[in-house]
Structures are given as structure tokens and as C-alpha cells.
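Attaching the record inline, Q. Sequence:
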Amino acid sequence: MGNRLTEKRIMITGAAQGIGLAMAEAFLREDASVFLIDRDGPLLAEAVAGLAAGKAKIGHMAADITDAKGIEAAVAKAAAEIGRLNALVNNAGINVFSEPLATTDEEWQRCFDVNLKGAWNCCKAVLPELIVQGGGVILNIASTHAFTIIPHTFPYPLAKHALLGMTKSLGLEYAPKNVRVNALAPGYVATQKVLDYWNGFPDPEAAKAETMKLHPGGRIASPEEIAMAAVFMISDECTFMNATCLTVDGGLSVQQHPA
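Structure, as predicted:
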């Protein structure tokens, strides 16, 4: 290992922490050039400082994926700093969990602006780069919410179902241009979002234990485990994988009921 992503120039959104940062670390280890985007500029700068030691193939820009013009500027900056992009990871997203009739118009709009339209803004900005270069890869970070429903998590699953639909649509549309578009669906991952979720309960340790019980192996994924699945999907090891979704959830979505 160490050169699985040589000559890949990858833009990662939501890259300042969690899965996005783990992917940046993994991609760099595999000899990729990376361009990192996050709306939290100071946190992104801190993350880049931690990655940059001895690395000449990294660029970054604070940008909000809901701002199409800002994303276009980021793609141009990426080309100047690491070369024309030939891969995109749409990782940025937010949790919006509610009951359907309790969901406000603002929550609905924000959910779809970030989790769907934001991903499309990035695809739309990067696709011309991929086509003119004769091909490339787009990887959308979906979720097990893209094909299962948990009560009281509305409207997040709707946006993730739609993201999976967009993945399939773009994958078929641009296959003749040698552009692969796939999705990666994690389940629970040990990120700050999950910690915040547990901490929202009166007994966070009990909430954590209940989450672990849902998984056949009794644990949840690390960000690094999701990142290594992304390495595979970006690499030339799966050049015939297109318009599909790889689930990495430890078997969570397979069983009907926990033991």
C-alpha cells in the first residue's frame, strides 16, 4: 500500500473533521493530492496544519457547499494549487431529525440545501473538469438512511434517498464519458456528531450502549474504516463499479432486530 491513489487529485467537502478529515489523511497516505473544503475556516486551517507536515500536495479553501459560486471558485483554486481535479468526494452534510409534522419549513430547506443541492453544486462544478480530462470519479457519502427509515429522523432520510438517486442518475448519464459516480453508505461512525447525539440523552453512556447493541459486532465504525472504503472506491481497483452504493455499517442494516 501507499500508492493506490497516485495521480488522483481529489476535492473533499466537509473535510475539517470526522470522516472528511480521515479521508484526507488516508488519501494522502495513498499518494493522492487533496483539496479540502469546509465552511468552518479556522477549523479547516487547523486540520490542514496537522496534515501538511512533509506534504506538498494539499490545498484548502473555506467554502459553503450551498453557495454555487463559492464552489466554482474553490474548483478554480484547486486547479491552481494541486492541478485539475479528477475526483470529488461529497462528504459535507448535516443531520436534521424531527417528526414530519413538527418539521419547520426552515429545517426542511436547510436539510435539502446542504445534503442534496450542496452535493449537486459540487458535482456541477467538477463534472466539466472530469469530462475534459477523459474521465474521473465522484463519490457521494450517503448513509444507511438512504435506504432505511428510522422514525423521528425526518426529513434527513428523504435527502439521502434523493442523493442516492442522483448518484445513479449521474452515473448512467456520464458513464460514456468515463466518469464513475458512486455512493458510500456508512452507518454509525465514531464522530463528533455521534458523540453529540449520545450526549443529548439524560444518560449518554446508556444511549451509547443501546447504539452498540444494534450492531452484530457490538461496536460502531471508526472514521478510518470509512476512509479506507473510500480509498478503494476512488482508486482504479474498482473501475467497473458505477451508479451503485457500497454499504459499510457492520451489518446494522441487514438484521431486522438486534439480538
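The radius of gyration is 18 Å. The first strand starts at residue 9 and ends at 13.

More tomorrow.
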